[in-house]
User: Fold Magnesium transporter CorA family protein from Nocardioides mesophilus.
Amino acid sequence: MARTRCYRGGVLTDEDFPLDQVSEHLGDTSAVVWVDLCAPDLVDLQLVADELGLHRLAVEDAAQGRQRPKFDRYAGHDFLTAYTVLLDVASGRLITGELAAFITPAALVTVRREDTFSIDALVARWDDEVDLTRFGVGALLHGLLDFVVDAHFDAVESLDDQIEELEDLLFDDRPHDQSVQRRSFELRKSLVQLRRVVLPMREVVNTLMRRDIGLVPDELMPYYQDVYDHVLRASEWTESLRDLVNTILETNLTIQGNRLNVITKKVTSWAAIIAVPTAITGFYGQNLPYPGFAHQGGFLTSSILIVALSGALYLTFKRKDWL
Assistant:
Protein backbone atom coordinates (compact mmCIF):
# COMPACT_ATOMS: atom_id res chain seq x y z
CA MET A 1 0.00 0.00 0.00
CA ALA A 2 1.10 3.55 -0.74
CA ARG A 3 1.44 6.14 1.98
CA THR A 4 1.39 9.83 1.13
CA ARG A 5 1.83 13.16 2.89
CA CYS A 6 1.76 16.79 1.81
CA TYR A 7 3.43 19.67 3.67
CA ARG A 8 2.75 23.33 2.96
CA GLY A 9 5.02 25.85 4.59
CA GLY A 10 6.38 23.08 6.80
CA VAL A 11 2.91 22.16 8.11
CA LEU A 12 1.27 18.81 7.38
CA THR A 13 -1.90 19.61 5.44
CA ASP A 14 -2.92 16.38 3.75
CA GLU A 15 -2.24 12.66 4.21
CA ASP A 16 -3.00 9.32 2.53
CA PHE A 17 -4.24 10.80 -0.74
CA PRO A 18 -4.19 8.69 -3.96
CA LEU A 19 -1.05 8.46 -6.04
CA ASP A 20 -2.68 10.04 -9.07
CA GLN A 21 -3.14 13.25 -7.03
CA VAL A 22 0.58 13.75 -6.41
CA SER A 23 1.05 16.12 -9.33
CA GLU A 24 -2.10 17.98 -8.26
CA HIS A 25 -0.62 18.66 -4.83
CA LEU A 26 2.68 19.67 -6.36
CA GLY A 27 0.85 22.35 -8.32
CA ASP A 28 1.22 24.50 -5.22
CA THR A 29 4.77 25.89 -5.20
CA SER A 30 4.86 25.83 -1.38
CA ALA A 31 3.95 22.13 -1.20
CA VAL A 32 6.32 19.29 -0.42
CA VAL A 33 5.05 15.75 -1.01
CA TRP A 34 6.24 12.48 0.46
CA VAL A 35 5.24 9.14 -1.09
CA ASP A 36 6.12 5.75 0.40
CA LEU A 37 5.73 2.49 -1.52
CA CYS A 38 6.22 -0.86 0.22
CA ALA A 39 7.00 -3.76 -2.13
CA PRO A 40 5.25 -1.97 -5.02
CA ASP A 41 4.27 -3.63 -8.24
CA LEU A 42 5.43 -2.17 -11.52
CA VAL A 43 2.10 -0.40 -12.09
CA ASP A 44 2.29 1.67 -8.88
CA LEU A 45 5.96 2.43 -9.39
CA GLN A 46 5.42 3.49 -12.98
CA LEU A 47 2.47 5.67 -11.91
CA VAL A 48 4.69 7.63 -9.53
CA ALA A 49 7.46 7.74 -12.13
CA ASP A 50 5.06 9.27 -14.67
CA GLU A 51 3.75 11.75 -12.10
CA LEU A 52 7.24 13.00 -11.20
CA GLY A 53 9.13 12.30 -14.42
CA LEU A 54 11.58 9.83 -12.90
CA HIS A 55 14.40 8.38 -14.98
CA ARG A 56 13.96 4.86 -16.31
CA LEU A 57 17.31 3.60 -14.96
CA ALA A 58 16.53 4.84 -11.45
CA VAL A 59 13.11 3.17 -11.57
CA GLU A 60 14.73 -0.10 -12.64
CA ASP A 61 17.21 0.07 -9.75
CA ALA A 62 14.38 0.65 -7.29
CA ALA A 63 12.33 -2.20 -8.73
CA GLN A 64 15.19 -4.73 -8.85
CA GLY A 65 16.75 -3.85 -5.49
CA ARG A 66 19.98 -5.34 -4.13
CA GLN A 67 21.83 -2.10 -4.87
CA ARG A 68 24.86 -0.86 -2.97
CA PRO A 69 24.36 2.33 -0.91
CA LYS A 70 24.77 5.11 -3.43
CA PHE A 71 23.67 8.57 -4.57
CA ASP A 72 23.07 9.12 -8.29
CA ARG A 73 22.09 12.30 -10.09
CA TYR A 74 19.62 12.43 -12.97
CA ALA A 75 18.02 15.29 -14.87
CA GLY A 76 15.29 16.67 -12.63
CA HIS A 77 15.84 14.37 -9.64
CA ASP A 78 18.34 12.42 -7.56
CA PHE A 79 18.33 8.77 -6.53
CA LEU A 80 19.47 7.38 -3.18
CA THR A 81 19.87 3.81 -1.92
CA ALA A 82 20.48 2.96 1.73
CA TYR A 83 19.95 0.13 4.21
CA THR A 84 18.61 0.00 7.72
CA VAL A 85 19.99 -2.81 9.87
CA LEU A 86 19.06 -4.73 13.02
CA LEU A 87 21.13 -7.33 14.85
CA ASP A 88 19.39 -10.51 16.00
CA VAL A 89 21.28 -11.06 19.24
CA ALA A 90 20.19 -14.67 19.67
CA SER A 91 21.49 -15.87 16.30
CA GLY A 92 24.05 -13.14 15.61
CA ARG A 93 22.41 -12.57 12.21
CA LEU A 94 22.16 -9.09 10.73
CA ILE A 95 18.71 -8.22 9.36
CA THR A 96 18.83 -5.58 6.61
CA GLY A 97 16.07 -3.55 5.01
CA GLU A 98 16.72 -1.90 1.66
CA LEU A 99 15.34 1.55 0.90
CA ALA A 100 15.42 3.49 -2.36
CA ALA A 101 14.55 7.18 -2.48
CA PHE A 102 13.75 9.51 -5.39
CA ILE A 103 14.55 13.11 -4.51
CA THR A 104 13.05 16.02 -6.45
CA PRO A 105 12.98 19.72 -5.49
CA ALA A 106 9.45 19.30 -4.09
CA ALA A 107 8.97 15.57 -3.49
CA LEU A 108 10.55 12.62 -1.70
CA VAL A 109 9.55 9.11 -2.79
CA THR A 110 10.71 6.16 -0.68
CA VAL A 111 10.52 2.60 -1.99
CA ARG A 112 10.88 -0.33 0.42
CA ARG A 113 11.27 -3.90 -0.76
CA GLU A 114 10.06 -5.40 2.52
CA ASP A 115 8.43 -4.26 5.74
CA THR A 116 11.60 -4.61 7.83
CA PHE A 117 12.17 -0.88 7.40
CA SER A 118 10.05 0.73 10.15
CA ILE A 119 8.40 3.58 8.28
CA ASP A 120 6.26 4.47 11.32
CA ALA A 121 9.41 5.21 13.32
CA LEU A 122 10.64 7.44 10.50
CA VAL A 123 7.34 9.35 10.37
CA ALA A 124 7.47 9.77 14.15
CA ARG A 125 10.94 11.28 13.82
CA TRP A 126 9.67 13.77 11.24
CA ASP A 127 6.77 14.69 13.52
CA ASP A 128 9.18 15.29 16.40
CA GLU A 129 11.16 17.75 14.27
CA VAL A 130 8.36 19.88 12.86
CA ASP A 131 10.54 22.97 13.14
CA LEU A 132 12.77 21.55 10.36
CA THR A 133 10.07 20.55 7.88
CA ARG A 134 9.78 24.15 6.73
CA PHE A 135 13.08 23.60 4.91
CA GLY A 136 11.35 21.20 2.51
CA VAL A 137 12.75 18.02 0.99
CA GLY A 138 16.15 18.60 2.56
CA ALA A 139 14.59 18.30 6.03
CA LEU A 140 12.72 15.09 5.16
CA LEU A 141 15.90 13.64 3.68
CA HIS A 142 17.84 14.56 6.81
CA GLY A 143 15.31 12.71 8.97
CA LEU A 144 15.60 9.69 6.69
CA LEU A 145 19.41 9.62 6.75
CA ASP A 146 19.52 10.26 10.50
CA PHE A 147 17.15 7.33 11.05
CA VAL A 148 19.23 5.01 8.84
CA VAL A 149 22.57 6.02 10.38
CA ASP A 150 21.20 5.68 13.92
CA ALA A 151 20.18 2.11 13.04
CA HIS A 152 23.75 1.48 11.85
CA PHE A 153 25.11 2.90 15.09
CA ASP A 154 22.76 0.76 17.21
CA ALA A 155 23.79 -2.37 15.29
CA VAL A 156 27.49 -1.61 15.78
CA GLU A 157 26.91 -1.03 19.48
CA SER A 158 25.05 -4.34 19.78
CA LEU A 159 27.88 -6.12 17.99
CA ASP A 160 30.36 -4.52 20.37
CA ASP A 161 28.40 -5.85 23.36
CA GLN A 162 28.29 -9.33 21.84
CA ILE A 163 32.03 -9.30 21.19
CA GLU A 164 32.67 -8.30 24.81
CA GLU A 165 30.61 -11.29 25.94
CA LEU A 166 32.65 -13.42 23.55
CA GLU A 167 35.86 -12.18 25.18
CA ASP A 168 34.54 -13.19 28.62
CA LEU A 169 33.66 -16.61 27.22
CA LEU A 170 37.10 -16.89 25.68
CA PHE A 171 38.88 -16.59 29.04
CA ASP A 172 36.41 -18.63 31.05
CA ASP A 173 37.88 -21.32 33.29
CA ARG A 174 35.94 -23.98 31.44
CA PRO A 175 36.85 -24.44 27.76
CA HIS A 176 34.26 -23.16 25.26
CA ASP A 177 36.26 -23.68 22.08
CA GLN A 178 33.38 -24.76 19.86
CA SER A 179 31.02 -22.08 21.17
CA VAL A 180 33.66 -19.37 20.70
CA GLN A 181 34.44 -20.49 17.17
CA ARG A 182 30.77 -20.67 16.14
CA ARG A 183 29.89 -17.31 17.71
CA SER A 184 32.99 -15.67 16.24
CA PHE A 185 32.02 -16.89 12.79
CA GLU A 186 28.45 -15.57 13.19
CA LEU A 187 29.58 -12.16 14.38
CA ARG A 188 32.29 -11.92 11.74
CA LYS A 189 29.75 -12.69 9.03
CA SER A 190 27.43 -9.98 10.39
CA LEU A 191 30.30 -7.50 10.55
CA VAL A 192 31.21 -8.13 6.93
CA GLN A 193 27.58 -7.59 5.95
CA LEU A 194 27.35 -4.45 8.09
CA ARG A 195 30.56 -3.09 6.60
CA ARG A 196 29.06 -3.32 3.12
CA VAL A 197 26.19 -1.00 4.04
CA VAL A 198 27.99 1.33 6.47
CA LEU A 199 31.20 2.28 4.66
CA PRO A 200 29.57 3.56 1.41
CA MET A 201 27.37 5.90 3.47
CA ARG A 202 30.38 8.18 3.99
CA GLU A 203 30.47 8.93 0.28
CA VAL A 204 26.67 9.23 0.10
CA VAL A 205 26.35 11.80 2.90
CA ASN A 206 29.48 13.66 1.81
CA THR A 207 28.10 14.02 -1.72
CA LEU A 208 24.75 15.23 -0.44
CA MET A 209 26.47 17.98 1.54
CA ARG A 210 28.26 19.41 -1.49
CA ARG A 211 27.11 22.93 -2.19
CA ASP A 212 27.00 22.40 -5.96
CA ILE A 213 24.30 19.76 -5.38
CA GLY A 214 22.10 22.45 -3.86
CA LEU A 215 20.02 19.97 -1.88
CA VAL A 216 20.97 21.02 1.66
CA PRO A 217 20.13 24.59 2.77
CA ASP A 218 22.66 26.41 4.90
CA GLU A 219 20.30 26.16 7.88
CA LEU A 220 20.36 22.34 7.66
CA MET A 221 24.10 22.00 7.12
CA PRO A 222 24.89 21.56 10.86
CA TYR A 223 22.32 18.75 11.04
CA TYR A 224 23.84 16.99 8.04
CA GLN A 225 27.30 17.50 9.54
CA ASP A 226 26.09 15.71 12.66
CA VAL A 227 24.81 12.81 10.54
CA TYR A 228 28.15 12.67 8.72
CA ASP A 229 29.96 12.55 12.07
CA HIS A 230 27.82 9.57 13.11
CA VAL A 231 28.57 7.88 9.78
CA LEU A 232 32.32 8.27 10.35
CA ARG A 233 32.07 6.95 13.91
CA ALA A 234 30.02 3.94 12.81
CA SER A 235 32.48 3.21 9.98
CA GLU A 236 35.54 3.42 12.23
CA TRP A 237 33.83 1.37 14.92
CA THR A 238 32.91 -1.32 12.39
CA GLU A 239 36.50 -1.55 11.17
CA SER A 240 37.86 -1.84 14.72
CA LEU A 241 35.34 -4.57 15.60
CA ARG A 242 36.28 -6.48 12.49
CA ASP A 243 39.92 -6.49 13.58
CA LEU A 244 38.85 -7.43 17.11
CA VAL A 245 36.91 -10.50 15.92
CA ASN A 246 39.94 -11.64 13.94
CA THR A 247 42.06 -11.17 17.06
CA ILE A 248 39.60 -13.25 19.10
CA LEU A 249 39.82 -16.08 16.57
CA GLU A 250 43.61 -15.99 16.66
CA THR A 251 43.63 -15.76 20.46
CA ASN A 252 41.29 -18.75 20.71
CA LEU A 253 43.65 -20.83 18.58
CA THR A 254 46.59 -19.69 20.71
CA ILE A 255 44.74 -20.61 23.92
CA GLN A 256 43.92 -24.04 22.48
CA GLY A 257 47.59 -24.56 21.64
CA ASN A 258 48.69 -23.48 25.12
CA ARG A 259 46.09 -25.71 26.73
CA LEU A 260 47.29 -28.64 24.63
CA ASN A 261 50.88 -27.94 25.68
CA VAL A 262 49.87 -27.94 29.35
CA ILE A 263 47.98 -31.21 28.96
CA THR A 264 50.88 -32.78 27.08
CA LYS A 265 53.29 -31.64 29.80
CA LYS A 266 51.13 -33.13 32.56
CA VAL A 267 50.58 -36.42 30.74
CA THR A 268 54.30 -36.70 30.04
CA SER A 269 55.14 -36.03 33.70
CA TRP A 270 52.74 -38.69 34.96
CA ALA A 271 54.05 -41.10 32.32
CA ALA A 272 57.60 -40.55 33.63
CA ILE A 273 56.44 -41.19 37.21
CA ILE A 274 54.59 -44.35 36.21
CA ALA A 275 57.66 -45.54 34.29
CA VAL A 276 59.63 -45.82 37.54
CA PRO A 277 57.58 -48.61 39.19
CA THR A 278 57.18 -50.27 35.80
CA ALA A 279 60.96 -50.41 35.33
CA ILE A 280 61.69 -51.58 38.89
CA THR A 281 58.99 -54.26 39.00
CA GLY A 282 60.11 -55.38 35.58
CA PHE A 283 63.68 -55.76 36.79
CA TYR A 284 62.69 -57.64 39.96
CA GLY A 285 60.33 -59.80 37.98
CA GLN A 286 63.12 -61.42 35.95
CA ASN A 287 63.05 -65.21 35.91
CA LEU A 288 66.67 -65.55 37.13
CA PRO A 289 68.64 -65.04 40.36
CA TYR A 290 69.42 -61.40 41.32
CA PRO A 291 70.39 -59.63 44.57
CA GLY A 292 67.56 -60.29 47.01
CA PHE A 293 66.06 -63.09 44.91
CA ALA A 294 63.48 -65.12 46.87
CA HIS A 295 64.09 -62.96 49.97
CA GLN A 296 61.87 -60.47 51.78
CA GLY A 297 64.65 -57.89 51.49
CA GLY A 298 64.30 -57.84 47.74
CA PHE A 299 60.64 -56.88 48.03
CA LEU A 300 61.42 -54.16 50.56
CA THR A 301 64.23 -52.82 48.38
CA SER A 302 62.03 -52.62 45.28
CA SER A 303 59.21 -50.96 47.26
CA ILE A 304 61.55 -48.35 48.72
CA LEU A 305 63.02 -47.61 45.29
CA ILE A 306 59.54 -47.20 43.79
CA VAL A 307 58.37 -44.81 46.50
CA ALA A 308 61.61 -42.81 46.63
CA LEU A 309 62.15 -42.38 42.91
CA SER A 310 58.45 -41.70 42.15
CA GLY A 311 58.28 -39.17 45.00
CA ALA A 312 61.45 -37.45 43.80
CA LEU A 313 60.10 -37.18 40.26
CA TYR A 314 56.74 -35.88 41.52
CA LEU A 315 58.38 -33.16 43.62
CA THR A 316 60.69 -32.19 40.76
CA PHE A 317 57.83 -31.87 38.25
CA LYS A 318 55.69 -30.03 40.79
CA ARG A 319 58.49 -27.52 41.42
CA LYS A 320 58.81 -26.92 37.67
CA ASP A 321 55.01 -26.46 37.44
CA TRP A 322 54.59 -29.45 35.18
CA LEU A 323 51.94 -30.94 37.43
